[in-house]
Structure formats: structure tokens, C-alpha cells
Request: fold
Amino acid sequence: MKTSLPAPMTAALEPVRARLLRAAETDAAAMLAAADKDAATILRQAEAQAADLLAEARERGAADAEAVRRAAHVRARRTARARELAARRECWEELRRQVIRGVEALRTTEGYPRIEAGLTARAHRLLGPRARISPAPGGGVLAEDETRRVDLSLTQCARRALDGAGPEVEELWTP
Reply:
């Protein structure tokens, strides 16, 4: 139920009502201005935080990329080194095969009896005059006494010579 005030009272209250309305409008405007100011501050803080996060993410990304680059570089160097070592090993094995083939081919030369006699004399120097001497498969001799055995086969002599050649032998296949 709505009651109306008499007109003289309504007229008397009009300035109060107007002041209250102006005060409410002023308060509302102040609240809106404060809210706008707070919103602007929060927005600036959020933008600064976003910029910081973005910078940090870029730094992390750059650091991660550098780590990946370094790891890839290390892997590439290891792979290259492994290939180089495999190629060297292949050259070494081929050299061994050729040297052994060449040394074993000495059996078919007219100088082989002199080589065999020299190997037999060496076996006697190493094991004594009672050493049992037998021909080695592929050429050369095998010698043994009661406790020792000496392999003076052409193949073993070639292998020992190559093994004793040292790293200089690699100069044959390196630029």
C-alpha cells in the first residue's frame, strides 16, 4: 500500500531528495572512477606479468633450443667419429688381409726354403736344439718343447709385424 505525502511535505523534502540523489550520483561516479582505476591497475599488472612470463618462456625456449642444438652437435660429432673409426678399422683390416696374403704367397717363391730355414733357426734359438719343428699351415714353422710353443707361421709373423708397426701405419690411408 502506497501512501502519498501531502504536497507541502513533498515540496519540503524535495531539496533533501535532490541532495541525496546528487550524493548518490557523486558516490556512484567516485565508485566507478575507483573501479576504473583499479581495473586499469589490475590490467597493467596483468600485462606486466604476461610480459614477464612471455620473456621467461622465450628465455627457457632459447635455453632449451641451445641444449637441443648442443646435443645434436655432440651426436653428430660422435657419429662422425664412429664412422671415421670404422673406416680406419676397415682400412686396417684390408691392410692385414693384403699383407697376410702377400706373406703367404712367399711359399710359392724360390726364396721360401731360405725363409723357412731362417724361421727354423729362430725357433731353435728360442726353444733350444731339441725343439720339435713342424711346418705351419700357410707357411712358416711351429715349434714346441716340453713346456712351450712358438708360432712362427708366416701369418703370425705378419700379424706381429703389423701390430708392432704403431700408429704411423695409419699414414698409409690418411690424407
About this structure: The first helix runs from residue 7 to 104.
